[in-house]
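WARN  no MSA supplied for this record, continuing single-sequence
INFO  ligand: zinc ion
INFO  echoing inputs
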Amino acid sequence: MSGSFGLLEPGQSSRFPAERLVELRSQVDLKQVNRGRNGGRRPAHDPDILIDGIRVRIVRDQRNRRWFACPRCARGCRILYRDPEFVVACRLCCKLEYSSRHLYRSLPSLHRVIRLRRQLGIDPRPFTAIPKPKQRLELRWRRVVARILVEEQVLRGHLQKINRDLDRRARVRGWCET
Ligand SMILES: [Zn+2]
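INFO  complex generated
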């Protein structure tokens, strides 16, 4: 699968703002919420949960899978994103896009991390786990991993800056206590 699919279509900005990238946004995964609850037993009904002070409903689909109901649009989703305007909401409400839809001249480290990770055939998302190499590939693997770690360090700097900006905006608007 090519990561550059659709990149050159008209209207695809190469300067898509970094704060609108899924990969750089703080998120809450339903899997984290599930972990360790009820010792694996299914409750009679799913209680609402609080995320950053916002009450979030848990809903089930016809196959009995659990989903967050987006607090804003009620759409079922597995991941909610922290947002300066809505506190937490689904990807569509936050108007987030996956980085693979855009060129990142303004954020070249992200582009390089994704490309290097694809070279190894591993999860292209920054900061996700890097598995151990197969023995015969070990030397090349370690070289590429070293480059990934350097680029992710650069990216972490961008991420921290964006999070600081989001925190500051949230504080200014009185959404968090600290
Ligand atoms: Zn939504």
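Strands lie at 27-29, 49-51, 54-60, 66-69, 76-77, 79-83, 87-89.
INFO  checksum written, moving to next record
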